[in-house]
Specification:
mainly alpha
């Protein structure tokens, strides 16, 4: 009897195995493959995102380095421009000062020449007036023949008259 009992269990076992195999094939075809494909697609997308993030990070680092070098270069150029402007300002200052000195020397030189000319003109006026006075004095002396005391008084009087009229006009 032992043999008989084992056979019905064997048939149910084979049937269970067949059902399990069918269930496995069914699940594998309709569930495992799509889930596996979904997981592989998801894994590929995640890997793609990671690779993209690495690429973006490398580009960001490159851009940052580029911007930092540009900023450094711009700072250096601005310092050079400032230094150049300062030097040009100093040169302009020196040029303006030199021109001002030259102009001042010209003004002083013209003023000295004008003073000398005015002084010479004054001497010429004095000379001509002195000559005229001498002639007038001599003519008055000749008109009147008087003694030395009277002549001196007459000369003083004449100088006072001529001085007041000629020198003031």
């Amino acid at each position: 009897m032992f043999v008989v009992r084992a056979l019905p269990e064997l048939s149910s076992m084979i049937l269970a195995w067949a059902a399990l195999l069918l269930l496995y094939l069914f699940l594998r075809h309709f569930l495992y493959k799509p889930v596996s494909q979904f997981l592989n697609d998801r894994k590929a997308k995640i890997q793609s995102d990671i690779d993209g993030a690495k690429t973006l990070k490398e580009e960001a680092i490159t851009l940052r380095d580029d911007y930092e070098s540009r900023i450094s270069l711009a700072k250096k150029e601005s310092q050079e421009i400032i230094e150049s402007a300062r030097k040009r300002g100093e040169e302009l200052k020196e040029d303006i000062l030199a021109e001002a000195r030259k102009e001042a020397e010209g003004i002083v030189s013209r003023a000295r020449r004008e003073i000398i000319r005015e002084r010479e003109m004054a001497f010429q006026d004095i000379k001509s007036q002195a000559g005229e006075m001498a002639i007038l004095i001599a003519s008055r002396i000749m008109e009147e023949e008087i003694k030395m005391d009277k002549q001196n008084g007459l000369i003083d009087k004449f100088i006072d008259e001529v001085g007041n009229s000629k020198w003031q006009s």
